[in-house]
Amino acid sequence: MTMTELLHISNGSCVNVAKIPLLSYDCFRAVTLELLDVKTRHCACYFAYPCGEGLRLVMCIADDGQGDIIVYACDAQKGEVLLSAAAQCLALERFEREIHENWGLEFEGHPWYKPVRDFLPGKYEFFQMEGEELHEVGVGPVHAGVIEPGHFRFICNGEDVLHLEIQLGWQHRGIEKLMLEKKRLIERVLLSEGIAGDTSVSHSSAFATVWESLCGFRPGREVLWARTLAAELERLANHTGDLGAICGDVAYQLGAAVYGRLRTPIVNFSQRWCGNRLGKGNVRPFYSPYAFTEELKTQLLSDLAAYERDFLQMSDKILYFPSVLSRLDRTGVVSLEQAEEIGAVGMAAKCAGVERDIRSSHPYAAYPSLNVRPVVKTAGDVLARTELRIDEVKQSLGIIRALLEDMPSFGRQENFDGSPMADSFAISLVEGWRGEICHIAITAPDGSLIAYKIKDPSFHNWMALALAVRGNEISDFPICNKSFNLSYCAHDL
Known about the structure:
This protein is α+β, with helices and mostly antiparallel strands. The chain has 16 helices and 14 strands.
């Protein structure tokens, strides 16, 4: 099987499922390992769905160098034993675990079977280490405040963390199953907005792109413009809030207060635009439900001017304040080799030196004309993840102003009344503020959905947090955790 015989498609494409090459598993595995041996490629998604009497495995590899997505498949039977690809490519281990958990396929030689979401408390044996000086510390799944449920089990020698095991899955919501069960479009849109509340714009944009692609619909410029603006406002708000939380975790209350205040006008503007501070309702397939007016443009430019002044001043302070730097610098390091090995995306990847940003490599919406370059750091520590947030905020300010300078006219829009095409496969990659989001839909001969796959960047990056805390004091865990700020619910789906 050569590269030219595989299916190469662009982001946001829809193809007939018959065009996806069907390989034997041995060939499927060999091709996967060969493709992922190139550092500019990574696994965007790997999943299974029922097909006939058995299962179909689908692999989607994003080629960041060429800007396309390589898609191919193989058939297997439930309960069949297959040779693990993760044994040689660690980035696939969580995908294989998910397939095993959902469909019963066995992967011989897999590095470590453990629950992804179907976690049964009291029946799972956590990793253990023996030694008189070692002790375990358990955190969660019930946390203080409003944080979502997840269990963190540390193995420590005194204050030093030797190992952290993270167990999620406490609120497995069955979002992918509900996508098939719900038949009304609005129900599916609302599900996409609820995958991760702080990423409602990005996830609903991925869904809208997939649905429009299935229906053979190309949205107009004003729709793509609005989605891009909403996504950058979402990035702005979340990075700002996280910078405040990072300051709070190192007891720098001035930074926590200022960044917290600065987030407010951004989310309030979103509410003024679409009626929701998190951008829910602002993205719909086929049209843009809320026109962007000259009045909103004037208000946003004014808000950004006030925001930028205080943001830059506060950011200069934290990057040169010794007591803050002493807590951030060389804390929670994820190396380039580790990031590449686990297939990290988003901040976890870019802060370790991996140039991986879908807005640049597989541009969508209005990004093709914006020439976005990834913000990349190399230290891989909490300081790098802080600096990246600051630099991405500055970048987003530039993107938003460029969009406002070229604002389209929002006239009356007709809502398209189309249906998904039969026997089709559609994929959408979106760069959310945490990193790469992937939505995939497959339809039956009658056009109904038979598979819907969702992948949040947190699916890749929880392992990065586990690696980051090794060799640090347990008191550094909160700041390490907040520097990633991964999603529990978007992992648990």
